[in-house]
Each structure stands twice: as structure tokens, then as C-alpha cells.
Amino acid sequence: MENGTIIRTTDLVKIYPMGEQSITALQDVNLTFGRGEFAGLVGPSGSGKTTLLNILGSLDAPTRGSAEVLGLRVEALPHKKAAELRNRHIGFIFQTFNLLPVYTVFENVEFPLLLLGMATAARRKAVMDALEWVHLADRAKSRPNQLSGGQSQRVAIARAVVKKPELVLADEPTANLDAENSHHILHTMENINRELRTTFLFSTHDDKVIGHLRRKITLVDGRVAKDEPGAGR
Amino acid sequence: MIRFLLKGILRDRGRSLFPLLVVTAGVFLTVAFYGYILGMMNNMIRSNANLRHGHVKVMTRAYAQDIAQVPNELALTGVAALSDELRTSYPDLDWVARIPFGGLLDVPDDEGETRIQAPVAGLAVDLRTSGGPEPGLLGLAKILVRGRMPRVPGELLMSDELARKLGLDIGGKATLITTTMAGSLAMANFTVAGTIRFGIRAMDRTGLIADLADLRRALDMDDAAGEVLGLFKDGIYRSDQAAAVLRSFEGRYAGRQGEFLPAMQTLAEQPGMDIIIGRMRYATSAIVFIFLLAMSLVMWNAGLVGTLRRYGEFGLRLAIGEAKGHVYRTMLAESLLIGVLGSTAGTVLGLSLSWYLQVHGIDVSSIMKNITFLMDTVLHSKITPLSFVIGFIPGLLASLIGTAIAGRTIYKRQTARLFKELES
Description:
Chain A is of the alpha/beta class.
């Protein structure tokens, strides 16, 4: 992988068997992403956005072709190595936030660092830094059910970036948010992208997100239909 | 990490309190039920022992060979000396002399002529010695229907059904016609002091309870008795101790010949009791096994449901980078913790109830109708070494296995699928 490239897919194909038939979710996808990109996969439902995100996140394996993430071939990774890749290098942001309801904001953000085995003092500092980035340091002791949707998604962002991963995969991160909160969230992510040089890859069909993308890849029926610069700065 | 997971367990009641309660309740019920079943079995053995067999029974060798015929002509003599000797040699047991008897009961009319007659079968026990054990052993007070306990010579207790059939009221007179120990005709007059309900069909048709001294006089059985029963003072039949008493007693008469020498039988050796005890043990084991199986299924299911409802959480943890093996191991550790705590709590509670029932019992006579001769109106329980583990091990294993099986899906299912379930 040449300098600066963190993701490369080569002739990537994903087929889901459905009884006697099969559905081709991805067809010959060839893409590369460099460090610090703020890019998005756009397209209608069923176009393969989430499937591609899952493969890049080592949550799924391609049927054919290759997906290389941070120099590791996802299709060849054993479960343990795939977990390690996600643990150390990839952050996830979900449409429905998926905070653990019984834990506080601080503890939710702390969880990935516990898996990394980070020392207590360093962990505490990293968590508070991440909460500062998303302007929620004052809500560290709150429970998820005490937060608004926008605040919850900001906690999810803090959880995704607390370990300072090279790559953040965000699946429809603003789908459950109003315009104002969406704007705040995207602004936060843009700041982190600039400050930490973290690569953000979105799956979205939300115009608000699309407006912030610096690179827009349109998927149609599992194929890359367009790969063009976005309107984002 | 352990602290983090413990916080989750403590805060999430669905993950801690509910499974804990299910395991605690399951183990509690298992332990208490097991104790109760054992207690009930003991009660049945106790009732049979008190009524008929004793925990050990001494009679003559000839009487023992023909015991079903109740052959009073082959009864023990010198019973006072024998009883004293037994009390001295085996102080752990209470020793009581009894005479089972049969005969014809003749009820006269106002002219003194026979109005009606009926065959009777009775038991002569020491009813009048103040503080004697017999009324308590036979539970006579609780089965008394009319009248009172005999207080003066010549009074007896009669089955209420028999008394009604013979038209006898309290204070009514009847004559017992039977044979003496020497085989000659015997007649003795009695007054009905009270009527009782045995709850056993044969005994309700023909049963009498008379005082031992009255019967001895009537049957010329001075210082004689058909049987001397030995009962452990705590009322619990212990086959090994009974066998030890038997061996010791037989040792005294070993090598001596004579059909009127005393012979001893344990409860389990007496006709019918070996089968009853054997069947009761099988039945008890079967009931306990079925109950245990049902409780294990409930606890297994709780473990299963508890894990299934957390698939979303597991999907998230996998996405964040936790390894499948780690997720699985933490699930098992949580389940083990819940299993240990629940099983301990359940065992302690179950043993506490069993202990209370074993020591004090609960008298339910006020809510029971038609109390019978063999029925113990005090609920009893019994704790054995098995009581300590009979609930604990299934409680621990059932919840652990339920979680282990449900958790296998984490391995079987693709990570992306679990991830998808997280979103749903």
C-alpha cells in the first residue's frame, strides 16, 4: 500500500445466498482512500453502502476480491485479528447511537480503552479529552437516557474517536437527528478529521451529510457509479 | 474490565436481579421440596412405627414367626423386667409394651340380652399412666371425634363408625369376648369413653383402643405383652442404628434355644414395611428428579433468555473490537457469578425453611379436615447432607449451560449478522 493510502478494494464482490437464489450486494468495487479523507458512500437503500462499510470494518468478508485496510487483507483475517483491527484502528458510529444504557457517558466512551488495556490515568485523560472534543465533558456522569438524540450521537462519536483510530466508519450517523443536531455532529466530525487526521467514511443518503463530504462515491446496485469531489471544505 | 462488567451486572436488573431471583427461587424450591419430601417420608415411617411396628420390635421367637395371626398365647412374659433391661441397654429408645387383640364385641339391650355383636380388632396400650408416651405416639387427641380419653379402668376408645353401627353412645356398655393367653374364654365389660376416627377403612370398621392394664386383666396376661416396641426418642427411624441395636440384642441370645426367648425385628424387616420403604424411596427419588428437571429447565431457560436479549450489546462489543472469545467468556463468568450467588441464596433459604420445619414443624391441623390416624398434621422437613448440594449444583449448572448454549450463537453467527441485530 503506497504512502497515505489506508483502504484499497480490488474487484470486491459480495454475494448473499438467499435460498436457491443469491443477491449480489457488491460488484467489482475498486476504491482507494487516503489518510485524512472525509468521504461518503451515497446511494439509495440496497445499493451496497452498508455492506461495503461492514467489509471495510472487518465485520464481514467479501465473496471475491480483496479489501485491504491499513495493510491487512480483511478477507484473510481470523476473528481474533479482525477484532484487534477494529479495537486498535477503527471506530464505528451507528445510526441508532447504540450506547450501553446501564453505563454513564464516561463509561461508554471508556469501554474501547478498557479493551485496549490502557492504564487508568491515561484512560481517564483520553476519555475526558474525547468528551471535550464533542463538548460533553459536563455530562460525563449522565446516563444515555438523560441525553438528547444529538448528545447521544456526540457520545457515540467520542467513543469512536477516543482511541484515536486511523479510520472512522459512520453508518447513517444523522438519520435520527434533526437539522440543527446533524449540523453540530458533522461540524464536530470535521474538526476531529482536521485535528487528528482521522479518515471518515460515511454511508448516507442524507443531503445534510452529503453537503459536508469532500469526496462522494455513488453506489448503484452494488457498483461504483460515480466517484467525485464533494461540496465539503 | 472486571469492575466495568460488575457495574453492568449490578445496574442492569434484567441481567442481574431477574436471573438471580429465578436461580434463587429455583434452588430454594428444590432444597425446600427435597427436605419436605424427606420429611413426609419420615412422617409416614414414623406413623407406621408409632402405630404398629416401632423402630424395633421385641417379641418371642414363636410370636415373630406367626406375627400376622397376633398369637397372644405366644406373648412375652416378664415384660417389666425385660423393659427395664431394654431401657438400660438402649437408652436412646423409648420402650412401650402393647397387646394387639381380636374378639367379638357384644352390645346388650336394656334387659342385658345381646342386642348386636360385631367382630373387633384392637390395640391395648398404656393409656392411663400420667405422662406416658402412648397417647402422643398414637396421636389420639387429634383423632378423637366424641367423648374423652379413658381415665378409669374399664374405659376404652372405639372407632366412631363402629360405635354408630353398634348404636353405642359415649358411656355405652359393651362386652369383649375373646380368649385368654392360656386359650380359655375371656369376657370383659367396657365403657365407651370416646370415639375416634382412624382414617383406615379396616380399622374404622372394627377398631378399638383399650388400656393395657384392662386387657392384661381380661386376657390373664399379667406382666405379659404381645410386643415391646422400641422407638428412637427423636422419632426418626435410622436403619443403621436400628440394625446396630438388633445386632447387639441378638448377640445376647445367640446360641440359646427356646421359642419363647425374645427376638427382635427392625422396622424394615417387618412384613410389608420393606416393600413400603423401598417403594417410598423410589417414589421420593422419582418425584425429586422430576421436580429437579423442571426447575433446571426454568433456570436454563432464564440463562438462555438473559443471553438472547443481549445480542445487540454483544454486536456492539464485537464492533468496538472485543474478541468473540472474550465476549463469550465474560458471559459465562457473569452467569457463573449469578449462579453461585443465586444458588447460595436459594440453598440458604431452602435450608432455613427445612431447618425450621425439621425443628419446629408447622401445625396445619386447623386447616385440615378428616384428619386420619396415620396422618401427621404437623408439616415436617428433613435436612440431609444431600440437601446442601441438591439445589446448588443444578442451580449453578442450569444457568451456566443456558448461557453457554445461547452464547454459542456468537460463534456460529457471522459478526455482521450480530451487528445487524444490534441495529434492529
